[in-house]
Amino acid sequence: MLILGIETTCDETSAAVVRDGREVLSNVVASQIDLHAKFGGVVPEVAARAHLESLNLIVDEALRRAHITRPAHQLDAVAVANCPGLIGCLLVGTAAAKAFAFAWSKPLIAVNHVQAHLYSVLLQDESANRRAGEPVKNEVADSPIRRFADSVSPPFPAIGLVMSGGHSSLYHVHSFHNLRRIGQTQDDAVGEAFDKVAAILQLGYPGGPLIDKLAESGNPLAIKFPMSLLEKDSLNFSFSGLKTAVLYHVNGKQGRQRDASALSLQQKADVAASFQKTAADMLVEKLRRAAARYPAHALLIGGGVSANTAIRTAVTRLGAELTLPVFIPPMRYCTDNAAMIAGIAHGLLRSGQTADLNLETIATV
Ligand code: KG4
Ligand code: ZN
After folding, report:
1. Is the Cβ atom of 165 under 6 angstroms away from ligand 1?
2. What is the pLDDT of residue 148?
3. From ligand 1's centre to the CA of 283, what distance in Å?
4. What residues are paired with 15 via a beta bridge?
């Protein structure tokens, strides 16, 4: 089965063709980073307009790379992320998906983009061209990270953690289509915290990858930032306290006495590494609590922040400690992409869960 996926929830315009839910034939992602960088964050109206301008080209390119010349004959369905996200952005992708589905007389499939982030652990990297059954190569040097052979699916139930610019959410996962949220952030999402700390350090936007890089040359034990874990048994997250602690450390009391230009590069790297370690410790502690409270045979992570080196390593160590297999998406499928949308849609199509042309977009779920 071949499914075209469309993803326009935030600042990436993406289209992909995936075979049978796992084999990525094409995944085209147009990032809008350059458009938003000068504003220091995503401007929703600018993002929606950019999706409108580029989506048809991106879909054409995804079909071309997948050698789809007659979509009405070759495709089985059109899938779109219709929630959650920026409403103007969701509208562009959803309207386009409806038009394609109508024009080609194909079923339309609605996908929750946060659930799709967890599904991305199953995607086969089209560039790697591995043989079935062959283990995925380690992506983090000198770490115990081991991804699983392509043919392996997680044993359920599992604990899933989605970490992105908009979410830090824990799930008890019975299947990729049946999951219950058991924890979420009470304030900033973890990706937001990375982006804000990068802004405090005057690194630029988006901050996650920049912090990750800078932290490589920093000492994670240089500064002891407070861990906010909420009540003893809470599975919710709070990152605003950590962000404020970084602000006060860098800018002085009340956050206004000086700024990051007063720090040397090494001092900035120490702040980045110490912040990153604290965030990783907080995430791992919630995973540990969830695995202790709910039956779990595996740990799954997904979302843009799951590209973070320290977090990938910390979660893998937790898996080893708890003797649970850890499923981590290939790097390129951590941040927003349409392959995960087309991938998860396969199971929805097989179980007849299709949408009609009245499909709505939902900003928050
Ligand atoms: O999943 P995603 O692409 O979009 C949302 O659904 O929000 O996640 C984007 C977030 C941004 O906050 C970005 O800074 C963060 O993921 N991110 C990272 C890394 N790469 C992307 N955060 C930490 N380390 C990274 N390597
Ligand atoms: Zn996302």
Report:
1. yes
2. 41
3. 15
4. 6, 28
Tell me: pLDDT of 254 over 90.
Answer: no
Mutate to test the pocket of ligand 1, among 11, 36, 305, 328 (most ligand atoms within 8 A of CB): 305
pTM: 0.92
For the segment 262-310, what is each residue's pLDDT rounded down to a tens digit?
Answer: 999 999 999 999 999 999 999 999 999 999 999 999 999 999 999 999 9
CB 276 within 8 A of CB 310: yes
CATH of span 158-328: 3.30.420.40
Within this chain, domains 2-133+336-350 and 158-328 share the same CATH topology: yes
Ligand 1 atom with least separation from CA of 192: 12
Residue ranges of the domains in the chain?
2-133+336-350, 158-328
State the DSSP string of 289-317: HHHHHS--S-EEEESGGGG-HHHHHHHHH
Q: Which residue has the tokens 């930032």?
A: 225
Domain 2-133+336-350 has CATH 3.30.420.40: yes
Considering every ligand atom, which ligand is closest to the CA of 204?
1
pLDDT digits 0-9 by tens, 63-88: 999 999 999 999 999 999 999 999 99
Ligand 1 pocket, residue 164 CB under 6 Å: yes
Q: Is the CB of 207 under 6 A from ligand 1?
A: yes
Are 246 and 182 in contact, with CB atoms under 8 Å apart?
no
- Residue 12 C-alpha to ligand 2 middle, in angstroms? 9
Q: Which of 41, 8, 20, 36 is nearest to 198 (CA)?
A: 41
DSSP bridge partners of 171:
160, 181
User: Rounded to the nearest whole angstrom, what is the distance from the C-alpha of residue 165 to the centroid of ligand 1?
Assistant: 5
